[in-house]
């Protein structure tokens, strides 16, 4: 259930007090509203079972140059401000429970709206409720054997590689990990590509700055998911440790999935 909405251009030219209804049916996507006046009420109506809605979290991230509106969480007429017009923080992401309500996007008074475009990306995530995207995806602790084996089966990318460099982004509170890849087991998007000069496969993965990732020797198994177009780190055991836990589970018939016939001999 990872269909992506198209990016809508919504041109509002009627009375400035009008309120329009928008329904989103996909589990992730983006919206753009050109020349915002009045307001939008945005209803999330993805194709999930109503009984499972309490297990879903919605995360939204305004587009880089989004301007001209305030974005609220709306439930039964009550509004909670999520993003104020003019907030250009690079870490602007907010998550809330699917059951908490929908979004109310209100245009702010403007002398000249001709250049204003507001927009945001959204994702529906099968996780517990949290107010911070980072807390959902990247806890700074080692994964258990069971978590690693499940991550191998369910992650958007699974690769064996080494850490070449780590760049800490203080403003965004992220660390960017430069990974040199020895083997790709899965990647749903082209995160890792061969370098033009060397032909060596490489790519970047982000994680929390507070996790304190540093360059080090040895191979790791990197797993994780794509969020808002970025690769976010999940479980990342040393490869020899992964081989041990994989063999133990395989011998006991407890592997949730097979990753490859040669995994134990690499």
Mind explaining what this structure looks like?
The protein has about 270 residues and is mainly β. The protein folds into two domains: about 5-135, Jelly Rolls, CATH 2.60.120; about 140-255, Beta Barrel (OB fold (Dihydrolipoamide Acetyltransferase, E2P)), CATH 2.40.50. It contains three helices and 16 strands. The chain has helices at about 135, 145-155, 240-250; strands at about 5-10, 20-25, 30-35, 40-45, 55-60, 70-75, 80-85, 95, 100-105, 115-125, 155-170, 175-185, 195, 200-210, 220-225, 230-235. Strand 13 (about 195) and strand 14 form a beta hairpin.
Topology (elements, then pairings):
Blueprint: E1 4-11, E2 19-24, E3 28-34, E4 39-44, E5 57-62, E6 69-75, E7 78-83, E8 94-97, E9 102-107, E10 117-125, H1 133-137, H2 145-154, E11 157-169, E12 174-187, E13 193-194, E14 201-208, E15 220-227, E16 230-233, H3 239-251
Parallel strand pairs: 1-3, 2-4
Antiparallel strand pairs: 3-10, 4-9, 5-8, 5-10, 6-7, 6-9, 11-12, 11-15, 12-14, 13-14, 15-16
């Amino acid at each position: 259930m990872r269909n992506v909405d198209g990016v809508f251009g919504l041109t509002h030219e009627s009375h400035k007090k009008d309120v329009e209804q928008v329904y989103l049916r996909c589990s992730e996507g983006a919206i753009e509203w050109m020349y915002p006046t009045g307001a939008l009420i945005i209803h999330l109506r993805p194709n999930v079972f109503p009984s499972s809605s309490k297990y879903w979290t919605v995360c939204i991230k305004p587009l880089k140059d989004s301007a001209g509106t305030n974005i609220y969480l709306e439930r039964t007429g009550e509004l909670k401000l999520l993003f104020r017009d003019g907030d250009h923080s690079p870490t602007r992401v907010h998550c809330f429970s699917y059951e908490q309500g929908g979004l109310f996007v209100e245009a702010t008074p403007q002398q000249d709206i001709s250049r204003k475009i507001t927009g945001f990306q959204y994702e529906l995530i099968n996780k517990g409720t949290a107010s911070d995207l980072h807390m959902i995806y990247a806890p700074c602790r080692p994964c258990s054997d069971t978590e690693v084996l499940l991550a191998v089966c369910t992650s958007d990318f699974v690769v064996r590689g080494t850490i070449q460099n780590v760049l800490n982004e203080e403003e965004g509170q992220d660390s960017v990990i430069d990974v040199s890849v020895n083997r790709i087991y899965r990647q749903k998007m082209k995160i890792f590509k061969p370098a033009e000069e060397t032909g060596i496969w490489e790519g970047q993965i982000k994680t929390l700055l507070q996790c304190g990732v540093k360059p080090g020797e040895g191979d790791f198994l990197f797993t994780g998911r794509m969020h808002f177009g970025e690769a976010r780190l999940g479980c990342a055991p040393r490869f020899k440790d992964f081989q041990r836990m994989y063999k133990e589970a395989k011998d006991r018939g407890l592997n949730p999935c097979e990753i490859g016939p040669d995994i134990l001999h690499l």
